[in-house]
Amino acid sequence: MKKPVILTIFGTRPEAIKMAPLVQAIENSGDLVSKVCVTAQHRQMLDQVLDIFNITPDYDLNIMRGGQSLSGITTLVLEGVEKVLMQLKPDMVLVHGDTTTTFAAALAAFYCKVSVGHVEAGLRTYDKYFPFPEEMNRKLTGCIADIHFSPTETNFNNLVREGVSPEIIYITGNTAIDALKSTVSVSYEFENESLKRINFNNKRIITVTAHRRENLGQPLKNICLALKEIVQKYDDIEIIYPVHLNPQVQEPVKEILGELPGVHLIDPLQVLDMHNLLSKSYLVLTDSGGLQEEAPSLGKPVLVLRNETERPEAVEAGTVKVVGTDKNTVINETLKLLDDESEYRRMAHSVNPYGDGHASDRIVEAIRYWFGMTDKKPASFR
Ligand code: UD1
Ligand code: UDP
Q1: Residue 131, preceding bond cis, omega within 30 degrees?
Q2: Ligand 2 touching residue 13 (CB < 6 A)
Q3: Best substitution site from 181, 220, 285, 291 to test ligand 2's pocket, by max atoms within 8 Å of Cβ?
Q4: Which of 138, 271, 286, 312 could make an S-S bridge to 291, C-beta 3.0–4.6 Å?
Q5: Average pLDDT, integer, range 316-336
Q6: Which residues are catalytic?
Q7: Residue 382 pLDDT more than 90?
Q8: Which of 181, 151, 158, 164 is nearest to 279 (CA)?
Q9: Other C-beta atoms within 10 Å of 379: how many?
Q10: Read out DSSP for 66-124?
Q11: Strands 147-150 and 169-171, how do they pair?
Q12: d(C-alpha 258, C-alpha 40), whole Å
């Protein structure tokens, strides 16, 4: 039998981090051919990940533009991926999550009648504008997908409720946790100069990231104003904020927090620095999806700077709290954790609802099953 050719397509930082372990697992399978296409919806932030995981893409569409629009990204991905598919003729395309690359690449595959596997399938808020446009991207990708890799049982149930046959959904865990297993180490030495200078023993570190489209404008300003008040109240905390390269994030963040003692606005971190920073942090404030999965695994409380989450599992486990973007609420919820030891201890325990580090292996086995290369379905992650 000819080895099936699997084309993995991704374009942004989080997709790359979560697809990297899967690309490695496909390469190591021996009986699947791995090809990689990056859209480069992100350029620098994608390249940081490719470097760390030693991935050399077979195709690079290089589509990123400053101030790019959703329609612009969609069009360039659709046209670019179609050309790759016509040339390569893969047996399956894998896409990840809910970015515009994800949806447009899945659509291009559908137009070319290539099977689509959706990694990180079935996350939902059921509000089409929150997160925007991710909720719609993942729903539309789910409509197109032939095989769904759901991180958790909750995600599986969401898809079943929408009418997807349970036969084509696999509960795999999230590949984010596979990546995390290979990146965090106690003896890690930071590459970033600002992090090298931080005294992690005497200070409580609050790691912050915020970049979501629905938070651009006033919500992001509120978050920054809250951080400003928080840092001014304590002399034992340092805020470390690797700032997303989007100018609509950079400008307000630098304007409100630049030059403030105790606040370190730094460039986006390469993933080894980032994961090891998380492991040394006291607390995480974020609107990121990925950090909501990683920090609980490292036993770090997370305050989510959004009004909803598609990742309820760690909220239920008590390590993540959704606090929104109201300035006073962000301040009050943060102070509770900084001032009340028992409140902090209640949230600061390690839980792993998102994976056990073997998601990529399960996905590879499910793909082999799909192609009739094994008659054994992989066991679910529970
Ligand atoms: C995208 C995803 C979002 C994901 C996020 C992860 C969509 C619609 N959004 O949002 O789901 O959570 O990535 O970070 O798919 N930029 C650079 N260099 C980079 C990356 C971005 O300069 O390496 C700047 C560019 O000016 C670009 C802008 O950031 O136009 C916005 O990038 P874009 O991919 O459109 O949106 P994100 O907010 O990053
Ligand atoms: N991350 C990183 N460097 C940073 C900030 C985040 O490597 O400076 C990692 C983070 O650990 C997680 C992923 O990027 O694995 C999350 O990406 P992002 O917040 O951009 O997107 P989201 O998860 O919100 O889609």
Answers
A1: yes
A2: yes
A3: 291
A4: 286
A5: 98
A6: 98, 120, 134, 211, 213, 244
A7: no
A8: 181
A9: 11
A10: TT--HHHHHHHHHHHHHHHHHHH--SEEEEETTSHHHHHHHHHHHHTT-EEEEES----
A11: parallel
A12: 29
Q: What are phi and psi of 233, to 5 degrees?
A: -85, -15
Give the whole-number percent of the chain exceeding pLDDT 70. 100
Structure tokens at 319: 């390590």
Query: Angle 361-364-367 (CA atoms, 0-180°, nearest 5)?
Result: 150
Tens of pLDDT, residues 176-207? 999 999 999 999 999 999 999 999 999 999 99
| pLDDT, position 1 | 78
Measure the N-to-C terminal CA separation of the chain; round to a whole number of Å. 33
| 209 within ligand 2 shell (Cβ under 6 A) | yes
Confidence of residue 169 (pLDDT cuts 50, 70, 90): very high
Span from the CA of 115 to the centroid of ligand 1 (angstroms): 27
Three-class SS of residue 33? strand
For residue 200, which phi and psi values (nearest 5 degrees)?
Answer: -75, -15
Q: What is the mean pLDDT of residues 324-340?
A: 98
Nearest to 230 by CA among 341, 329, 340: 329
Among 18, 209, 211, the mutation site with the greatest number of ligand 2 atoms within 8 A of its Cβ is 209
pLDDT score of 22 more than 90: yes
Distance 159 CA to ligand 2 centre (A): 25
Quote the pTM value.
0.98
Q: How far is the CA of 117 from the centre of ligand 1 (A)?
A: 23
Omega prior to 133 cis, within 30 of 0:
yes
Q: What is the mean pLDDT of residues 90-109?
A: 98
CA atoms within 13 A on the CB side of 240: 27
Nearest to 219, CA basis, from 327, 313, 68: 327
Evaluate whether 61 touches 37 at the Cβ level (below 8 Å). yes
Residue 272 has a pLDDT of 98
- Residue 120 corresponds to which amino acid? E
